[in-house]
Amino acid sequence: QVQLVESGGGLVQPGGSLRLSCVVSGMDFNIYAMGWYRQAPGKERELVASITSGERTYYVDSVKGRFTISRDNAKNTMYLQMNSLKPEDTAVYYCCRYQITTRRPDYWGQGTQVTVSS
Description:
Oligomer: single chain
Mean pLDDT: 97
């Protein structure tokens, strides 16, 4: 079955960097668009970045210039490089697969905690 497993979260000081990974199995990874979402305590889950099968990318305004989404189809892995982290980036980060016809997330990972604090 389809599985998405995130890793790379942790505690980092403001201004620091982290790289999240999402390893995918059970599907033909290279034909799907993928995304990163995050959910902070008391807030709704929000889209952070997405990448199509053709590697076209989208970023929410609050992370533009600081985060970079990428994928390695040979490794069935998607990444989120996060630089210049701010306390407001603190959240649980989830990766997802976008269903081809509906273009909505249909599979999610379990999430990885990112905490930005001094």
